[in-house]
Sequence to fold (466 residues):
Amino acid sequence: MATRGVFQCQKLTLRYCEYGGSSRAVRDYLKSGRLIDWATSRPSVEIKVKVQNGKHPIVTGDYVTQAVSNKSIGGNMTGKQSKPVIHQICLKSKGGHGHGHGGNSSDNNHDNLITVGNFDKKVNKTNGANPIEDAFNLLYNKSGRKMKKFTKPIYTDTPSIQGVWTPSLDLHLIPQEDIDQKYFKLTIN
Amino acid sequence: MEGRHGQQLALARLEGIGKDNLPFDPFLEEEEQLLEEEEHHDDEYDDEYDEDDDFDDEEEDDDDDDDDETDENNDSIYNRDGSLRRKKSTLATLRAGYPAGGLFAVLEIVGSQHKVTTDDLLVVHRLQPVDQYKIGSVHTFGGEGDNSKNILLVGSTHLTIAGMPYVPGAEVDVMVEEITQDAKVIIFKKRRRKHSQRKNGFRRDLTLLRILDIRLPEQYKDHKYVGRDSVDEIDHNELEDADNSPDTTVISPSSENTVKFDNNEKEDVGQSKLAKQ
Fold:
């Protein structure tokens, strides 16, 4: 997410387990070292990797807008406390799948990884080859704002440039000589 | 602004009066008195505690908070969501239909057409390939190449160019702000008493685009129109007269000079010419 060029995703925290089967995919990913390539190609994000044994693996995103709004939670005049918006994706993989299980085992990671949460392989163009990177990209591309439905296709401050039409605008009464109207052909290459 | 049409637009201008001021609070005076009393109370304590470490620490904490707030308020022209920071009165006039000035265009993107000005946020189906349309990337529609067939109409306050079907030479700069999904919509269909129902969820893939700049074709480089910044110069604090309306500053895209129109010149379309007859 980049509002006016300012990248909104400040930090991604990757939390995984050293022993559990659901963290296997994450451990493989970390061993392969692809995280470093991903991180260097996006210098605006700080990546923190944390070990938490006995838990499923999770990526959490911290955003600029979120940081500021969480500050003011305690001091609201109306007394309402807004829930902090949390952006998390769980990166569980099924530990039980072995080789030779059915005819679908084309790619190790591809079959074993099952993800929970708003996570779709078609979201990014790694073609499902690395769903963990897809998760990172998902969080990186977001802003920290609360998920609200987009009601309009355009959000403007300036809905009118020439002035809003009013019934008293009598364009048909202007004599034709006063309007500078031309037709000509502009060629497209 | 002359004529009936101009008067209607002038009413839009009146929408903004008083929006900058705080709403009336009957207890404001009492609160101010209480604050003054507290300050006097603190002054008494200052005489007793001249040198105190605790006092210094409190000052430092206060300064930190102030810095955070003032940085955001003073430095950025933009709000947190990326829109331009404008006064509340200006926003009210614009929403009511006051001419904002500048350029607008009708863009065709991903199969849908939108009327667009600078500083707009466009919500559009996801632009593929995602590697090309990354967040923070800037693209030009209407130029040459893949994106040349996009602009259907360009206009300013004093000129409109309708393309047949496209306007060659016009360009629109766009920045990719966010690549997400829309909020979840649940589609639930039930036939009652028939033991038949189904429930589906749907999230639309989106790209959010910010319009940075619109440019007319080269033949119209020297065209003069009312600039976007003229709206911000309106002073809403005074009561409105016809004479008090701002001088329309005219900015030509290529030249550096600004030319001012007189208020007496014909700004309104049609009515003044009829009056002559």
Summary: Residues 167 and 173 of chain A are 13 Å apart (CA to CA). The longest strand of chain A covers residues 9-16. The domain at 2-69+79-140 of chain A is CATH 3.40.30.10 (Glutaredoxin).
